[in-house]
Amino acid sequence: IWGRPAHVNERDLLASPVYNFSTQQRVRPGVVHASSVVEHRRPVTSLDSSGETLYVGNKTGNAMVMAMGEMVHKLTPRTIAGVDRRAEPRGSAVHLNASLEECDASQAKLKNLSPIRPGFAAPTGRPTAYDDAETTFVHCCANGDVYVSTESGRLACWTPGEGEPVVLETGRRIRGMAVRELPSRTVMLLIQNPDLRTHVHLYSHSTEDVWLSGPELAYNPGDGYVLSSICAGPSQLHCGLRDGRILSFNDHTHQSSLWLGHEGEVRCMDSLNGVVVTGSADMTARLWSQGGACLQIFAGHSHDVTAVKLTADRLYTGSDDHSVKAWSVHDSACLANFSPPSQVGVGALSVTPSAVYVGYNDGTLCSFVLRTSCAYGCGETFDSCDQSGCEVHQDDLCPERPVLCPTDECSESLRASALQHHLFMMCPFRVVPCGFGCGTPELTARALPLHMEHSCTHRPLQCDQCSTRMQARELPQHRSTACPMRRVQCSLGCGIPDLEARNQQCHLAFECPHRIVECPDGCRLPMIMVKELSLHMAESCPLRMVQCPQGCGESYQHRHTAQHHQLHCAHRLIDCPLRCPTTHLRFCDQQSHV
Asked: Pick from 84, 115, 109, 237: which is nearest to 163 by CA?
């Protein structure tokens, strides 16, 4: 019996940073659904895992090795009939085939055991008969060694790939098992005597011979202390009691302390880096420091907490209310509720970085994935307990999430990663610049072809008359003022039809009947149009040559008509120089008349 248990100071307990029940819950617990369910048919009593391999202890006295939901191995530490232990009453170890079939006596190999620690009652006679309903405890070490103990008193160590397991008959009823891997391998068994007294036996496994010679130590808590669960720390052994207290043994100081807090039986325990977590029949789990101060209280189950598993930042608890919960060890907030596939209590828990494995009392074995992949297949994974993180990613961040084009008129659904390409390259309603640089605002890609073909003022067009290419905005002015083949009116008003601008100068200079010309006779009369020239020369030009209307036969310029008639015309009428009364005497007849 180690030193008298020292009670933890109640003042220290009250001063410890326990959970504040008035604190508002900071995180909305998510719901995690089982990814795979296996009907195991027998109640699961113990679970441990290594990587993707799961080790299952159940109510058959066997340990199952499972991978990807399928059993790949079965450890059967059964009693072999015909092995006579009377020759070595202090005990023997039997190597068994790790298969579904039992070995007979001819296959068994006996090994003499080293003397058991003096003072400890060694088993004698044959082992007790195999109990098909005995509880099995299993633990997998970091190096791959697997320890299996059964309620009937058998302890086995199996190293995968190195032959058959070695089975040790302890001769006592085993109620629990814990394995300390560092600094040296030690197996701790919670033993119940026929008088129902409980104590702990330690089997050191520094070498195979030392392990087979165990137990090395026996922890006896004394009268009044009934142990119900155990777990091992780096230098301490922690035992949960039926009355809710916790008895802690220190390997270095050889002293014990009693931790107070629970109001019901401590049904399960776990330890990590000196921190201890306990689950109790008072429906709570508690986190304890190495010195025994209660750090957090996790309240939320409606029945006994039957399984606990501690990780670096989380606590996982299972209960007889068939629920499994994940908690934050920093503020005791419930992070997730694992949706149970079974309506019976939880028997065991095991946690890996990628999954939580849960064994139920009806034999159901299921796994809950802790890293869930994005539902849209982007490859990102998220903590299943952090529903908000996954939701934020899938709603706002995932490049593969479906999104709608933000353009009002466009209703196309596409991947978020393609949104920028869609907005800049594909959306028919995106605003684009005109390819001809006209600067039209709010021009959509869908309207661009029609705009560039029919509406753009900068689109290139060809004059349908002169074939000159120019911008559409320049065409009207070109047609009205610049096209050399445009139809124009003669500036002199001659009214000629279909006069082209390119021919206008030639027309004005040489063709227009309204052009001003000089009289060929040189009369220098201004504003003589071509069309009037003939009339002018025939009737109006003062320099035109005319015949004397009196018939004298002479021609003279029209301007000299009066002079001719008065002075030169031979037929002009004159008076008789002799003053006779003759009238109408012509000048040419004067001589004859006189």
From this structure: 109
